[in-house]
# Entry
Amino acid sequence: MRIMITGGAGFVGSHLALSFKRDMPHSRVIALDNLKRRGSELALPRLARGGVEFRHGDIRNREDLADAGSLDLLIECSAEPSVQAGLAGGDRYLINTNLMGTINCLDHARHHGAAMVFLSTSRVYPIASLRDLPLVAAETRFVIPDGITGPGWSARGIAENFPLAGSRSLYGATKLCSELIIAEYVALYGLQAVINRCGVVTGPWQMGKVDQGFIVLWAARHLFGGALSYNGFGGTGLQVRDRSSRR
# Structure
């Protein structure tokens, strides 16, 4: 089996590439990355030691994908991942990578009869609608009280059918547009595809920044020193990702 992971030198992409090669040692695993994000070059020695083939390329360039050749599975992990992207420039790179690049990946997968896995984001949900949820401050976190529900939300959290009308950031918009295009390729061309909406992913080898990978940033500031600030929701730190401590 031949697997190509775009954004393969990034945090998620490199972990997936190494995991596939470990669990399917006879497969050929290719990590394609333009190495634009600082720190991604540090993944190259790990990929090489793990038997992953690295290709320097950019999904904005159809030629770079064509040079990688045929494949059975394409995992699209490449993106400008910051929700703040485009606020102070760089909006063209964001749109051309996150949307046009995805279309190039779709065309490449379709041409070779490959399946595709697309890493989307929880940022596809509109910001204003999320802020309007009836959150109540409990002892350790904000919660939606039991018994109160609405379209796509309840005390269990946000469901995939949460209403999508409204703005969500340029980053979230490009990811949502990509999801819609993927659905059309599935319907029109019979492409096999899976969309995963990820959020707040973290772990070893992540490069933490304020706007992306912030849990690693917190850990780094704790270990090596540096100021931290709480933003939003009164600065109480009650905004948490899941309800695991209540189960």
